[in-house]
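[09:14] KT: can someone run the structure on this one? pasting the chain below
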Amino acid sequence: MATLNATKWGYIRSISSATFSTVRSSNGFTVVNNPTTAASSVEYIASSGRGSLTHALRRAYFTFDVSSITGTVSSLSLKFRTDTTAGVGFRVVKSSAFGGSNSNLATSQFTNIDTSTPYSDSITGASSNPFSMTLNSDAESDVQSNSYFICAVIQNDNDYTATAATSAYNKAMNINWALTPYLEYTETAGASGPANLTSLNGIAKASITNVNTITLANITSINTIA
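[09:31] RB: done, structure tokens below
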């Protein structure tokens, strides 16, 4: 299987508020770009106070330059090192952080996640080197079709489901960033066709099998592109 290191990574801590929906929909409070030491990076805290709970979150973000992947992707997983980690569910979701490519994370990107496009099931956290999160066909398709693959790891039971705790809660995933996060995957080479063709009519070359009933492998040029 092949591997590909993340080009950038980091985590964002939210504001704290008595209203959970406000925490989830607001800009973050602090951001850490490309950390290299262990830190609580994915977290949900509901701390008790006078009359109500105060909520806070952390989310981890990753971007990968996948432009070199041109074949069909399968058996895709996100891997990174974890230290002491709560045995609760965490999930990978689609993200548009890093400016949609490879810029630094910013607090304004805390909400740049798409929970309507989960890239994994809920996976129980554990201490592991590496910790592996198996990704689904939506993630495989995005790796094949885009120049950058961007995702976030969030706490599942409350953050992903947008459900506030009703009593004090504190569960976290501690990521040891000494190991650069990476993707592990299997790639099956696609039809060759014109070497300089990357896409046609907005469709990535890896997703094209034929053009006008002619198998791509049998085509030497398209619109003068060889």
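[09:33] KT: thanks! The longest helix spans residues 137-145.
[09:34] RB: yep, looked fine to me
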